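From the shared-data thread, chain only:
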Amino acid sequence: MANDLRTALGKEWLGSLDDPASPASIAAKLGHDLFVNKGLVPTAFEKIESILPTESLKLLFTIIGAVVGGIVGSWIALKLGLPTHGK
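Structure, as tokens:
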């Protein structure tokens, strides 16, 4: 098991960047370097894209709640015969 671990951690099995059929070369063509461990770093557009659905949904519910609240409040005011603005 120690030999297998050395092989996996040694990264020789990834191949070289010069060999077009090796995993390292294929990943490099897609913009990733398998020999550098930097983690996943989202782009600015990906950050905005991930925030947008949750914030836009909150905003939508806030707008719907305000409109429904205004309609219900106006309806109650009319039913109670409260004076309206400007009359």
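Residues 42-87 form one domain.
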